[in-house]
Design brief:
The complex is a heterodimer. By secondary structure, chain A is mainly alpha-helical. Chain A has 5 helices and 3 strands; from the N terminus they run ααβααββα. Chain A has a 3-stranded antiparallel sheet with strand order 1-3-2. Chain B has 27 helices and 23 strands. Classes of the chains: A mainly alpha, B alpha+beta.
Chain lengths: 120, 893
């Protein structure tokens, strides 16, 4: 399972939604709305994830084994409210995130070189 | 629960069930969190921004989730190995392969379905092409929606009448709503030159004519304002077709002189091939445009003579209503400025509307009819697909049993529908392309803009859409039913039993009833037109067209009346001497030629109270005309040599006119006064002849008088020759003779009178033919539908019939059983169709003649036709049922 995931992640760049969701979870488990807010602040408001997009992405990365539901409880919720679901990165998730960051670094480096060389 | 939360929960139902079950709570929580946050932040439009985010999110993520589900379905199908490549593409290929294989297995059904579709779509597309080209498409001019016909309006009438020249030119100057106004008047001119003289349609136009239409010459120039003024040099603009025909497209024609009538005109321009003159201004085939400078000054200055067709181009942003208001103000100013002239009011109407006129009354019923035909075709396709779905019930059940999902099966059937639709639409397009050519070739001449009718991309898209929709919708019904989860029943049943087929059978029966009903309506509609047409053909015209030939000659060129009389006297005398000619005469207005003249009777001797309403038709004829045309003399005498220019004016009247003027009194020797040309003349009635259908075959009883040609000669005459039966035409000899004595005179027409009469009813014949062919095809399709349904139910009930026959039932009783089933459907269809026909045939009101649209005989004949068709369709399956071999059938059990 682990190897399969790594292959797939290595082969295809992550979509922005997936990448930032993973990035948002890098510092620890978060619930859905917190992920959205974190993504928004990480991208300076460029990427706003609505609930459908967010949970669609979460479903996808859960199925690929990059994220799991964590047991962390929610102290702030009132007793009558349903328990919030928290999500956490798996090892595969962290690996996918690192791979993607390296890929992006490579891309940025390549672009910078090209721009520097290309400009008169 | 807050209303917005409830609403959001409702919206969430758009997601696939699985996704919703898993995330609904989280998403609602997200929603509430974000709502709280955005409320806290506040600010203008925060609510709007919030809902925008929510809705945009739904719009993008709902389809994505559905696609996910579909992909998963495909991946998880156990019959196929897990496949990560392009699963959707691959299943499509797979579906297509399966579909094609199944078509190859039952080619007859495939051909039947495709043919039915192609015929329905081909016919519908043909008529839609015509409707689109004639009624819907904008006129072929730049910004054509701003073009208007302008004219003298008459209270309570929807028509615009011609205007006088001073009014039209004042209007252009004073009414700001129009950027340009143009006047024109259609005419005919003789083109002379090296080739034989020819008469061509032409128009005298003012300089704005081409500018209003937004048309530019292909080469050379259009008329300038200086060419509106009397005395300007004689110039002409030619149409592309005439230029090609007559001058072989020679570019050197510019600046050269061509002879029109007797006058040389310098060619200043040639119009492009796609320029079509405006039919609404009486210029259907005009290919010669002459400048307004040619118009005689008396006509040009007369404010009371309305004779010009006027059109104008509205300025941008000016509406027809605004223009109308301005025209009213213009009319008021005119009345104030010229109190001595009769008051007039002016109106305008879109040129498009004026062009198409009332042809919609004739074309839309055809469109309705073809829609019905398409409905029958659809019902047939649905029926055939149902039969197909049922025969494949076992196959589908098997596939479901080994793991095909319901959506997979639906997709399979829809793919088949799509393929049928595609193939059907391709053949339909071929039929439409041919159909349009046939329609245009056969067009009766009463359809405007026929030259613009073509099968274009839009029309093909229409065909494609209809075809795909038809086969998808009707493919889907059996698809949804066919995939219904009743596996065991179907597998056990093996496609024989009755149980699961019952509701299908009812549906198919319903479709057949519908087909019969619609076919009946079409048959009755066509029957009404056929009935009308037969009546038209058998109308007593008042003359005898058999063995009559016509030679139309114009003795043109400003010759003295005496010379004209001498010329035609000579020509008629010669005609009478040609071997085989029994009688010869000549007339100024040949019956049914479309040319007619009307006059008012000012006074009637002995009837001081007489007031003429409606006027009378008149024509100038020679003494031999009545015998040559076969018009019966009822009383008195016709013209003879004693009626000379210097004797008192005489007239022959028809029976209607005799009744109108003198009632039951003896008309012979009585006198009436009418204006003949400029002077009022007293005419003495010397004879009464039978009524003749002068204007239209369908119009009887118009009062008409005949005046002596030599007492008031006309330059354009039709020589009428009655020949002995069975002889070859004398027209070639007559044309040769004319060329020998007067090579400068063009032959206006040279035709058998019978052909001429046939031409006069060519429009009714055309509509009869079109609707008749629709009805024929409808019957054929209904026949296929009935046959298919009965044949299928017989094959399903083989077992039952086998048992019956084994138990001693006679062949006849089985035959009756099947026939009775067919008959029940047909009778239900006829009853339904009868009700519809009573109302629907009213749209044919403008096309029928001599019958009401609910004519009993026609309805009865329609019933017979449909019953007969149904009988044939039922007989084959019924006979097959009687010939079943009970031993073989029961043995198979």
């Amino acid at each position: 399972m682990e190897t399969k995931t790594r292959q797939r992640v290595g082969a295809k760049p992550l979509t922005p939604a997936v990448f930032y969701a993973l990035l948002a979870l890098a510092n620890g488990p978060l619930h859905g709305y917190a992920i959205s807010q974190e993504v928004e602040s990480l991208t300076d408001g460029d990427l706003r994830m609505g609930p459908g997009t967010l949970y669609g992405s979460l479903q996808r990365i859960q199925q690929s084994g990059l994220v799991v539901e964590s047991g962390a409880s929610d102290e702030t919720s009132a007793p009558h409210e349903a328990r919030r679901r928290y999500y956490a990165l798996t090892g595969a998730g962290r690996l996918a995130l690192e791979t993607e960051v390296r890929r992006l670094e490579r891309a940025v480096r390549a672009a910078r070189t090209r721009v520097v060389l290309g400009s008169p | 629960m807050h209303a917005s939360e409830a609403f959001y929960r409702l919206l969430l139902r758009a997601y696939p069930k699985r996704f919703r079950l898993r995330y609904e709570q989280d998403m609602v929580r997200w929603f509430l969190d974000h709502q709280a946050v955005s409320r806290r932040q506040g600010g203008p439009m925060s609510g709007a921004r919030f809902w925008y985010l929510i809705l945009a999110d739904l719009v993008t993520s709902v389809p994505a989730q559905h696609v996910n589900v579909m992909k998963r379905d495909v991946r998880q199908r156990p019959t196929q190995p897990r496949n990560r490549g392009e699963p959707v593409m691959e299943t499509c290929l797979q579906d297509t392969k399966v579909a094609l294989r199944s078509f190859v297995r039952s080619p007859a059904l495939f051909v039947l379905i495709v043919t039915t579709l192609a015929v329905g779509i081909g016919f519908a597309t043909t008529i839609y092409s015509v409707i689109d080209g004639v009624l819907l498409a904008p006129l072929p001019y730049a910004d054509s929606e701003r073009l208007a016909k302008i004219g003298t309006a008459s209270e309570g009438e929807d028509r615009l009448y011609a205007m006088s020249a001073p009014d039209a030119f004042d209007l252009e100057e004073q009414v700001a709503a129009f950027s340009r106004v143009a006047v024109s008047q259609g005419t005919r001119v003789t083109v002379r030159g090296d080739d034989a003289p020819e008469i061509e349609a032409a128009a005298v136009v003012s300089s704005g004519f081409f500018e209003v239409l937004g048309a530019e010459p292909l080469m050379g120039r259009a008329f300038g304002r200086e060419e509106d003024v009397a005395g300007a040099p004689h110039v002409v603009v030619l149409g592309h077709g005439l230029w090609q025909r007559r001058w072989g497209g020679d570019r050197a024609i510019l600046g050269q002189a061509v002879t029109l009538g007797r006058t040389p005109f310098t060619v200043i321009g040639v119009m492009p091939p796609d320029f079509l003159p405006p039919e609404a201004l009486g210029q259907r085939d005009a290919e010669i445009w002459l400048p307004f400078s040619l118009i005689d000054s008396s006509l040009r200055e007369s404010r009371s003579d309305g004779w010009l067709q006027v059109m104008g181009r509205l300025r941008a942003n000016v509406s027809f209503e605004q223009a109308h208001t301005e025209l009213a103000a213009f009319a008021a100013r005119r009345s104030a400025a010229y109190p001595e002239i009769q008051e007039r009011s002016f109106g305008l109407s879109p040129l498009h509307r004026e062009t198409i006129g009332r042809i919609g009354d004739k074309l839309l019923p055809l469109f309705g009819a073809v829609g019905l035909l398409l409905a029958i075709a659809c019902a047939n396709v649905a029926n055939l697909l149902l039969v197909r779905a049922e025969t494949r019930g076992r196959e589908m059940a098997l596939r479901t049993a080994i793991g095909a999902s319901r959506s997979r099966i639906v997709r399979q059937l829809m793919t088949e529908g799509l393929i049928l639709g595609l193939v059907g639409s391709v053949f339909g397009a071929v039929i439409a392309a041919t159909g349009v050519k046939v329609f245009v070739a056969l067009n009766p001449g009463d359809i405007p803009r026929i030259a613009e009718v073509d099968v274009d991309g839009k029309v093909l898209a229409f065909a494609f859409l209809v075809s795909i929709l038809t086969s998808l919708v009707f493919g889907l019904i059996p698809a949804l039913r066919g995939s219904a989860p009743n596996l065991t029943g179907r597998l056990k049943d093996g496609g024989r039993g009755l149980g699961t087929g019952m509701s299908h059978q009812r549906l198919r029966g319903g479709l057949v009833v519908l087909e019969i009903a619609v076919a009946f309506v079409l048959v009755v509609g066509a029957g009404l037109l056929i009935n009308s047409f037969v009546r038209l053909q058998n109308v007593d015209m008042g003359f005898d067209a058999r063995n009559v030939e016509i030679l139309g000659v114009a003795h043109s060129g400003g010759t003295a009346p005496e010379a004209t009389v001498a010329f035609f006297d000579h020509l008629v005398e010669h005609a009478a001497s040609v071997p085989g000619v029994v009688a010869a005469g000549a007339t100024s207005n040949l019956p049914l030629s479309g040319q007619f003249a009307m006059n008012r009777i000012e006074e009637v001797e002995g009837r001081p109270d007489y007031v003429d309403d409606g006027g009378v038709y008149y024509q100038h004829v020679t003494s031999g005309f009545f015998r040559a045309m076969g018009i019966a003399l009822r009383q008195g005498r016709v013209f003879d040599r004693t009626d000379r220019p210097d004797t008192h004016a005489v007239a022959v009247v028809n029976e209607s006119m005799a009744r109108k003027l003198f009632g039951t009194a003896d008309p012979i020797g009585r006198r009436f006064q009418s204006s003949d040309g400029d002077e009022e003349t007293w005419h003495e009635v010397i004879g009464v002849v039978s009524d003749v259908r002068t204007l239209e075959v369908s119009r009887a009883g118009s009062p008409e008088m005949y005046l002596a040609f030599n007492q008031s000669p006309r330059a354009r005459m039709d020589v009428v020759l009655r020949t002995e039966a069975g002889l070859p035409s004398v027209l070639p000899a007559m044309r040769d003779y004319l060329r020998g004595i007067r090579p400068d005179l063009p032959v206006r027409r040279s035709i058998r009178m019978e052909d001429f009469v046939a031409d006069a009813i060519v429009a009714p014949r055309f509509y009869t033919l079109v609707l008749g062919s629709f009805a024929g095809v409808a019957l054929l399709l209904a026949l296929v539908g009935i046959y298919g349904t009965l044949a299928y139910s017989v094959s399903r009930q083989k077992h039952e019939f086998g048992v019956r026959l084994a138990l001693g039932a006679s062949g006849t009783s089985v035959l009756t059983m099947v026939l009775r089933r067919g008959l029940r459907l047909v009778l239900m269809g006829i009853v339904l169709g009868f009700g519809v026909a009573l109302v629907a045939t009213r749209v044919l009101a403008s096309l029928v003649f001599g019958v009401t649209t609910t004519d009993g005989t026609t309805m009865a004949l329609g019933v017979v036709a449909v019953l007969f068709t149904a009988f044939i369709a039922s007989m084959l399956p019924a006979l097959r049922a009687t010939q079943l071999d009970p031993v073989a059938i029961l043995h198979r059990e």
